[in-house]
Amino acid sequence: MPFVAATRSVGRAGLFTLSVLSASRPSVDLFREFVREIYKIGARSLPIIAVGGAFVGLSVTLLGYRALDTYGASNQVSAMLGLGLYRELGPVLTALLFIGRAGSSIAAELGLMRATDQITALGLMAINPVGKVVAPRFWAAVLCVPLLTGFFCSLAISASYFEAVHVIGIDSGIFWQVLKDSVDFVDDFGMALVKSAVFGAVAALVASYVGFHAEPTIEGTSVATTKAVVNASLLVLMFNFVMSALLFR
Amino acid sequence: MTEADPIVRLTDLRLDRGGRAVLRDINLAVPRGQVVAVLGPSGSGKSTLLAALTGELEPAAGSVEVLGQPVPRNPRALLELRKGIGVLLQGNGLLTDLTASENVALPLRAHTRLPKVLIDRLVMMKLNAVGLRAAADAFPRELSGGMARRVALARALALDPPLMVYDEPLTGLDPIASGVVMDLVRRLNDSLGLTSIVVTHHVHETLPVADHAIVIANGGIVFSGTPQALQASTDPLVRQFLDGQPDGPIPFDAAPRTAEAA
Predict the structure, then answer these.
(1) A120 touches B: beta carbon within 8 Å
(2) Which sequence spans correspond to the domains of chain A?
(3) What is the ipTM, given to two decimal places?
(4) Nearest CA in chain B to A40
(5) How many independent structural domains does chain B possess?
(6) pLDDT (tens digit per residue) in B212-238
(7) CB proximity A194 to B under 8 Å
(8) Residue B201 included in any domain
(9) Which of A15, A144, A217, B212 has the CB geometry, 3.0–4.6 Å to A42, for a possible disulfide?
């Protein structure tokens, strides 16, 4: 009965999401954990996002220059980069890197907490474990992924500028002017942030759900980590298509 | 073992795990102020009984009353009841990213509006009670098994619960640490006016500090009485457990635990 099992899983995940939202009452404790998680899953993801962004910027610039130069439009390389980056590559690749770096650690951490009775102990102390360990991670991801996307895009554009201007020889003024003319602050940059916030929520919810419900064994933790990365990545790609179809004309 | 106002009352209780009856026809009343040892071989259902006391497991039949009220099914009411029950888990359950003092402060921060200075003082008092004032800033990974168990004990006592439940408190401890923990159980029970239920298979370390002993085997209570009466028992089932005999009425080969079973 795979359909019944799948429906049950979706229902459970929905209830889990509701429990995360209902357990997110503002408190000093939640804020303290929230700040700590911003450091753990946000700040510590910066190096991988920086490197990823720089290489994506370099690759897209090289690819764009070769394609556009055929038509004598190599000056438009920053337009191609800007639109591709803000509409698709920035939010999606940041989310995928975030899932690999932070989503897996969320699932592993919660799985180990389950295996070492920490989650049980919280419940027995009359402390809602979802509010204590899941809610701060969820909200930190919702805040951090858009910020990381902004950082990813900045690094990609900086790397692209270096390559286009100093290696290929495109005029610096044209690079910036074309980029400025083609990318709209609200429609492109704003929507990239909205998409990123949704991807952050999806990544954190999937990772938390599989980690929180992991079988309390070493194998259970490793299965949860794999599931977190695979399921969250696929969901991000699906959500990206749906959102792109709805948001961008 | 009866009393007008017991702190725990189990009536005709049946507990199932994975569709299998683990315990049946359990009747028990735990009087206030006593240390009660719940003994039994591994897999006999001791931890299942504990899960029913804390509301983690719903009875298949019968009733569980704790602190004068039936264990509620409503999650909010259950959390409220749990504030009155201190539980020391077999695996300690200390949050590994918090120090010993932060772990002990956890329930105080969650359930009281006391100022930080007062919480800090209470935490040091609790750690002092278990002899670990000096380890306040240590992380769980920096503590020995016995020390971590005592930090978990201090945390379980943080809200001054009237009922303490210990799940296998001596597992993994050396004889000296075992003696320290059991001495603490007795001393804290008397000095703080608690009632303690110690779920364990460590007979010889537990009986000296217990007021009452219960033996669980073969799905039910096979003995209930004083530790002295237990030691003097000639029941073959009890004797097999106490003397550690491989052959007897308690089968050594039990059914495997399911994913749900504790």
Answers:
(1) yes
(2) 27-247
(3) 0.84
(4) B97
(5) 1
(6) 999 998 888 989 999 999 988 888 888
(7) no
(8) no
(9) A144
